[in-house]
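Lab manual, section 2.4: Encoding a predicted structure.

Procedure: take the sequence of the chain (192 residues), apply the prediction step described in section 2.3, and record the output as structure tokens. A sample record is shown.
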Amino acid sequence: PQADGIDFILRDLLEAWKSSLQGRPEGASMRANIQEAREEAQAMEQTTLALRLLGLEIETAPNPDLKEVLTSVFLQPSHLPDASPGVLALMGRLAGESGKPELQMQAYSYFLETFPDSDFILEALKGLAEARVTAGDLTGARELFREVTERFPMLPHGAEAHLRLGDLHRQLGEPEKGIESYTLILSVKEWR
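Recorded output:
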């Protein structure tokens, strides 16, 4: 499951589908091929591959009803040990969107424990931070956003993390620290 490369290839495939194949006959054909490959992977007990392909099926689902059915199959805690970094990031996001905050936190936490050096780490850190905000754990969220700002100081996501960090400092009664975060955003030309 730890091979990020496959997850990136599937993300590229998803982007290609969204930009040029969505709604076209070729897109439907691609979806059929993905489903067939997933079923074959399941038959061969290649669970990690099957989960990756199921995630791609969910992201390319032609209607909300099919997406909901596939998502309910996908969002199972028993899948965590077989999930790749990209799958865990998707599981966390979909669990949050589906109103399953416990699974959202489990997926992101498992990701951070199991794949701390993954190229998808930014998504997991931000996702878990937002899940903690939703759960009311503002202190835990603040620490995760701080980690994002320290590990990815100049990425565009850094500005977003500094903004969230400033907001959390304010909510936690630390207005001076909040102002520091907001001021930092304004000091970086690319973030204004």
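Check your result against the sample. Residues 25-43 form the longest helix (19 residues).
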